[in-house]
Structure prediction request, 165 residues.
Amino acid sequence: YLPTQGDEVEDLYRLLARAAKASDAKGVSVGAILSDYQRVRVESVCLRLGLVPLAYLWRRDQVELLREMVECGMNCILIKVACLGLESKHLGLTLSEMERTLMTLKNKYGVNVCGEGGEFETYTLDCPLFKKRLEIVNKSCIEHSSDPFAPVAYLHIAEVRLVDK
Prediction:
């Protein structure tokens, strides 16, 4: 990746630079599983900032990883859908609620069950590492494209709050 003015990666660079300075962080954990595009861009930012990129999930089996996330109690919701078989009605549902549907779509269409092909995006509300959980106070659905083969919809989260566990 070559730094490019106006690219979202430069926004990430500025954010991580502030976070590293404020926290004395030495590394950044990256959620990339299969996407070289994502991994290379985050690694570039880390190296420019002198941070160690940590990609613990890299090349993990996605079916196994999805199962582990559900079993360990991660509360992740779908906030974007962008593939055949996923619709706006799936926005806000948890990975636990979506696991069966994602497995069906994997078997039928080859969908990546962790969304590594851009099929969906998630937002983590709670996990065992969090001291508090996030609660969505105000949200709305935005229909971006109603294409019959790859409809795209987003969950616009307008307000969240921290809640004690």
Summary: The first strand starts at residue 27 and ends at 29. Residues 8-23 form the longest helix (16 residues).
